[in-house]
Design goal:
The chain is of the alpha+beta class. The chain contains 12 helices and 13 strands. α6 links the parallel β4 and β5.
């Protein structure tokens, strides 16, 4: 019987530029109010999003002045590479593992295009071996942290004794588009932040938690719910269906089905660790999963402090839960383009 993969450590990182919600609202007003007749009504989202500040790979004025795919993608490669090194370095140090001991690196990122991929670009700086197995993953969006964790854990299980490094890194602020006069773009400027999270996973030694099972559920005919448009100006956010009511109506049976395939039920879960896509999404998850209002406190705190960073955000929540003390069984959950729900069950170390 193969040994279960174990989570050895988590490391998180944010870029240097702080974007307060008030500054973001002022910048959005400057960019949109004179050109978008519905801006005043939509701008209320800055006050109701549950966010105090976020972090960006560039200062806020840069987003008002910079246009074009090439400039934005160059900022992605520069900013995401720095975040990769920061988060991965922290996770490796916490696990007591050197970069040269890593056998597989899984890199999850959907907010820019890098070929060679980010892991190759930082390889010499961080100190990866020349025989490391690189697994770059694109297109998972907000589900990427949880889905990437599942991929990394399955790789660790399939190669007992190897050390797997997962790095989820996103620069969502680069999708702030001054040319895109849409509700989705206004919401994005109120929600998105940049950040990275890394995890070390292996079967080789005791860790913080055992990876018990994982699974996904993809709803049919939902490709339009969330994603990117690819335009000359850069990536543009797609929110074509209201996600909070969709989550409230659909997430419970989806998660129940994922758990059932692993021989578990909702009642077996001691704590959900959810991707906090927004304040209304958190409320919807608490309602759908029949949790008491305020149960997802770490999710609200992460959202307030960092905004929605897409893939890494659920791992920021996990990091806070670890600091507070993991309960016996934690179920990480996230929803992302597809439209897909992803889950990973963790059993705390005895």
């Amino acid at each position: 019987m193969p040994e279960s993969p174990k989570l050895l450590s988590v490391g998180t990182a944010v870029p240097p530029y702080v974007i307060t919600q008030n500054d973001a609202a002022i910048a959005a007003h400057t960019a949109f109010s004179a050109r978008f007749g519905d801006f005043d009504r939509l701008s209320k989202v800055f006050a109701t999003a549950g966010i105090k500040r976020r972090y960006g790979v560039r200062p806020i004025d840069w987003y008002l002045e910079t246009s074009g795919w090439q400039a934005r993608n160059a900022a992605y490669i520069d900013g995401a590479s720095a975040l990769f090194l920061d988060a991965a370095g922290k996770a490796l140090e916490a696990a007591g593992v050197s970069a040269s001991q890593v056998d597989i690196v899984v890199t999850v990122s959907s907010t820019g295009v890098a070929t060679p991929s980010l892991d190759a670009r930082v390889s010499e700086t961080i100190g990866f071996r020349d025989d490391i197995l690189r697994v770059p993953v694109f297109g998972l969006g907000c589900a990427g942290g949880v889905s990437g964790f599942a991929i990394a854990a399955n790789l660790a299980k399939s190669k007992p004794g190897c050390i797997v490094l997962l790095v989820a890194v996103e620069t969502c602020t680069l999708a702030f588009r001054m040319d895109k006069l849409t509700k989705a773009n206004i919401v994005a400027t109120a929600l998105f932040g940049d950040g990275a999270a890394a995890c070390v996973i292996s079967t080789t030694k005791d860790g913080l938690a055992e990876v018990e099972m994982s699974g996904q559920h993809t709803w049919p005919d939902t490709l339009e719910v969330m994603g990117w448009s690819v335009d000359p100006e850069g990536l543009g956010v797609i929110f074509d269906r209201a996600i909070p009511p969709f989550a409230e109506a659909n997430i419970k049976p989806a998660i129940s089905g994922i758990l059932a395939r692993g021989g578990l039920s909702l009642s077996d879960v001691d704590r959900f660790a959810c991707h906090p896509g927004g304040a209304k999404v958190i409320d919807a998850l608490e309602t759908a999963l029949q949790l008491g209002q305020g149960t997802l406190n770490h999710e609200r705190d992460v959202l307030s402090d960092y905004g929605n960073m897409s893939a890494p955000t659920a791992l920021f929540v996990l990091d806070r839960l670890i600091t507070a003390g993991l309960p016996s069984r934690t179920l990480m959950t996230a929803m992302g383009p597809g439209f897909t729900a992803s889950c990973v069950s963790l059993r705390a170390a005895a």
